[in-house]
Amino acid sequence: DSGVTQTPKHLITATGQRVTLRCSPRSGDLSVYWYQQSLDQGLQFLIQYYNGEERAKGNILERFSAQQFPDLHSELNLSSLELGDSALYFCASSVADSYGYTFGSGTRLTVV
Amino acid sequence: DQQVKQNSPSLSVQEGRISILNCDYTNSMFDYFLWYKKYPAEGPTFLISISSIKDKNEDGRFTVFLNKSAKHLSLHIVPSQPGDSAVYFCAASASQAGTALIFGKGTTLSVSS
């Protein structure tokens, strides 16, 4: 157990739907990062939050949004889902902007 | 445009031999590099890192070499063990700009006994 908890582990949904992925960071970590891993792709950085505020944005689609709550857990919202959104979504956390990223085990999203 | 490239999707090595995984980067602002290991159904776990002020960092069986002029780094595993079979991701960051880690596509290492 890495200390980063992601729920659900698996999610199957239809095109056009909206889903919410949840991440609880490791205790004491203020930064949360979201990454997407599609087939044959590396880990694509989506977005970072630090202590409740958006810190950096990567290749995140406009249909996707995220937030970090006062208790530091984070949610990634994916809407108007397309088949191409099927992927593994990883959350990672770290203390401040350190490079000691700890990853969760991921949420596998399948859009049918 | 891929800023971090791992051009070998897979590598097969015999137990006890050396495994060499390669990574190239294009962004000259990158100054911190890491390797992560990933087993199936698990998230990536940190393996070893190197700052741009160094050209080598060693941790047990794992050594990372950095060639800044060539924008190239490599991970050496000696001796390789079957438990090392996993996907290895190279990652880089421009610490001055406070960027998040940028990952390569990964190399799948298979170590046979």
Question: Care to describe what's here?
Answer:
The complex is a heterodimer of chains A (112) and B (113). Chain A has 112 residues and is mostly beta strands. Chain A has no helices and eleven strands. In chain A, strands 2, 4, 5, 6, 9, 10 and 11 form a seven-stranded mixed beta sheet that branches. In chain A, β9 and β10 form a beta hairpin. In chain B, β9 (86-93) and β10 form a beta hairpin. Helices cover 0% and strands 53% of the residues of chain B. Chain B is globular and about 45 Å long. Chain B is built from no helices and eleven strands. Chain B has strands at residues 4-5, 10-14, 19-25, 32-38, 45-51, 56-59, 62-67, 72-77, 86-93, 102-103, 107-112. With 113 residues, chain B is mostly beta strands. The termini of chain B are far apart.
Explain briefly what this protein structure is.
Chain A is mainly beta and 112 residues long. Chain A has strands at 5-7, 10-13, 19-24, 31-37, 43-50, 53-57, 64-68, 74-78, 87-94, 102-103, 107-111.
Structural features:
heterodimer, A: about 110 residues, mainly beta, 7-stranded mixed beta sheet, 4-stranded antiparallel beta sheet, about 50% strand, globular, B: about 110 residues, 6-stranded mixed beta sheet, 5-stranded antiparallel beta sheet, 11 strands
Order of helices and strands of chain A: EEEEEEEEEEE
Q: Which sequence of SSEs, written as H and E, runs from N to C of chain B?
A: EEEEEEEEEEE
Q: What is the number of E strands of chain B? A: 11
Mind telling me the C-alpha Rg of chain B?
Answer: 13 Å
Q: Roughly what fraction of the amino acids of chain B lie in strands?
A: over 45%
The gross shape of chain B turns out to be globular
The average pLDDT value of chain B, as a whole number, equals 94
Termini gap of chain A: 30 Å
Q: What is the terminal-to-terminal distance of chain B? A: 38 Å
Largest interface: A-B, 25 and 25 residues
- Helix count of chain A equals 0
Shape of chain A: globular
Please state the structural category of chain A. mainly beta
Helix content of chain A: under 10%
Low-confidence stretches of chain A: none
Low-pLDDT segments of chain B: none
Q: What's the number of extended β-strand segments of chain A?
A: 11
Q: What number is the mean pLDDT of chain A? A: 93
Identify the quaternary structure here: heterodimer
Largest sheet, strands/sense/barrel of chain B: 6 strands, mixed
Q: Counting H and I runs of at least 4 residues, what is the number of helices of chain B?
A: 0
